Amino acid sequence: MATTLEFIEVKGVKIPFIHEEDKRLPIVSMQLVFTGSGSIDEGSSAGLARLSAKMMNEGTLKRGAVGFADALDARAIQLSTNAGNESFVMELGTLKEEFDTGLSLMAELLQEPNLSEETLEKVKTIALSDIARKEADFDTVASDELKAILFEGTPMAVPNIGTKGSIGKIKLGQVKNFLSDHRVLSNALIVIGGDVDLETAKKKVTQLLGALSVGAKGQERYYEPSKTPKESILKRPNTEQAYLYFGSPFAMREGDSEFYKSRVSMFILGSSGFGSRMMEEIRVKRGLAYSAYSRLSVAKTNTYFSGYLQTKLESQAEAKKTVAEVIDTFVRGGVTQAELDQAKKFMLGSEPLRVETLSQRLGRTFSEYYQGKPLGYSLTELKQIGELALDDLNDFIKRHGEIRNLSYAIVTK
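-> structure tokens emitted (413 positions)
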């Protein structure tokens, strides 16, 4: 059965309901997604969304963290909560026969999460430990610094894990308010699949959502990356190599009709591993790095081009210069017919691997809906890729010369 998009109505709110029935295994998986409810909506309290999600993983007030975990383990139920930049998500996975129990425990968690001062201090301690550990991961340090300079002055500039300072200041009342404001019907979206038919799934989920308030729909936001090249060099005496992260603006918004062209061009430039321009020029020809990678991120909240490599300390300047040269040559000269043919062959040939599991198919349908595209649009995009002409692709690449406005975040000695 194909993945479908329908709607259920709860308290006058029409809630998107993405479903696929798959009886090959007696399991059910479900996501309760609250859109517009991630780290971009936590104001000046960086880390609040993620911390609130972690609080939801500490069980209920009645059962406590251990008691709630025992109730899940006794029935082999998986239930977790996480927060990203744009959404707040509760995930449930059960055997078919335990689906009702899973929904019951999920309802308990929605109604009475373990929001106590003791739990908050525990979660904050773990968060601070995570932050301290990431400070020793120079890839993470450089990646975070790149976002900080590309999106200076916006929520995108701060990692969603927060900072030591911001985590320390978060109060229990802020967590309660965040959950109350964002876990509402107006933000809700359901993704469910497995051995459960559509009508049964609708009925059970409608009952679950009845406990939520209507609330206010989250506000959509968009943050432009800096168009002025910047450079930030972070000195770390204990590093044995340079971590070079680079990024630039890209004039595209989610839902753009030319997105398929960006997929092909970015695949050739830096996303295809050993066949990419980046790897060929930086590793194969010059031996400056073990790997070099670049990609395009297109989301509701932001769009930007970025990439990274690690190199010897003494090769830092040459590696940086080579990155700029590769991108400039790419923009000016475009790609060859051979590169386009290889890209098409891989992208079209690997398509079955992207939809072979239930979670992949549900995720694709969710993405199509979330991006405002009609269901099945991915097949249209594949056809467009297959028919893409070299001149059209190279014209597209030349029109996006803004990727040459590179900013750098470099961790070095």
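Residues 4-209 form a domain with the Cytochrome Bc1 Complex; Chain A, domain 1 fold (CATH 3.30.830.10).
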